[in-house]
Amino acid sequence: MLSGDKRALARLMTYVDNRHEELMSIMSAVHEKTGKALRLGLTGPPGAGKSTLADKLIKFYRQSGKKVGVVAIDPSSPFTGGAVLGDRIRMMEHASDEGVFIRSLGSRGSHGGLSRATRDIVHLMDAFGFDVILIETVGVGQTELDIRTLAHTTVVVLVPESGDTIQTMKAGLMEIADIFVVNKGDREGADRIKGELMGLSDLQGGSWPVPVLKTVAVKGEGIEELGEVIAKHVEFLKNHDSDKSRRNRLLKEEGIDICLSELRDKVSALLGEKGNYENPYQTATRLLVKMLK
User: Are 204 and 175 in contact (CB under 8 A)?
Assistant: First the structure.
């Protein structure tokens, strides 16, 4: 994989998704080769046009010669737990481009909109040598805060019809934005919601004033401006004192997530399928005693 073999990359991604028994040692080695890619998160409510926007951003970055990896978090199939691959269909024009690699993942019920495998997949793409990694979340709204722990720059995509829901969203989803995008900006109400978002941005304060842009992704309008603002945010992070502390915090949170994930697997294996689990507190007490011996 490190020598540029896409088949090896795809195989390692399958190992990640299936939680291969050697995954910890594999990812430990991979992690030493990461840290060069721009990780760009796209999130927002369903129907905002995130996949179309991602498609146009791929084209934008490819025009400047950058290699692009895409992790598209699809709603999981209720039957198989796998991704429904809708995002891949929308991005098919890039399928033959050697500089683009698209991987769809099922969310598998993750409350943060990201599956357990997402972070590891992103690390693999980073180590492989992609310059930009787009992470598009499933679009369930306020619970998508996990993207903040993974992306360097988070773009929250809304549409003019989102205006009535801003008040309920701002306590969660609205606060993770590094950039707001009002997509489908040629529709009625686009200027109104842009004004509301600018007001929220002013209230949030901070050393990075969150920009609000309008795009019409299906027509490619506003994409270049968005790319320029993303670049400005990346430059801001490089030159700002808080970037190092943010990076340390994210690495700490990642370590905790890895521990919890491994512990959950071990706990599940110890419990097995059979047994008396009528009282979950007694079950937990017995299990903790057993694990701590």
Answer: yes
Ranges of beta strands (E only) in 165-242 are 179-182, 212-214
Over residues 108-152, the pLDDT tens digits come to 545 444 667 888 999 999 999 999 999 998 665 444 557 877 899
C-alpha to C-alpha distance for 165 and 156, rounded to whole angstroms: 14
The crossing angle, in degrees rounded to 10, of helices 280-292 and 242-271 is 100
Smallest CA-to-CA distance from 264 within 254, 253, 256 is with 256
Strand partners, 70: 102, 134
Output the pTM of the full model. Answer: 0.85
| CA 173 and chain centroid, separation | 13
CB contact at 8 A, 45 and 182: no
| Tokens encoding 43 | 């999130």
Q: What is the helix, strand, coil percentage profile of the chain, to 5?
A: 50, 15, 35
Whose CA is closest to 134, among 200, 43, 209? Answer: 43
Nearest to 257 by CA among 27, 22, 1: 27
Q: What pLDDT digit, counting tens, does each position of 165-209 carry?
A: 565 555 566 678 899 999 999 999 899 889 888 887 776 667 888
Average pLDDT over residues 57-73: 95
Question: CA-to-CA distance for 33 and 130, rounded, in angstroms?
Answer: 12
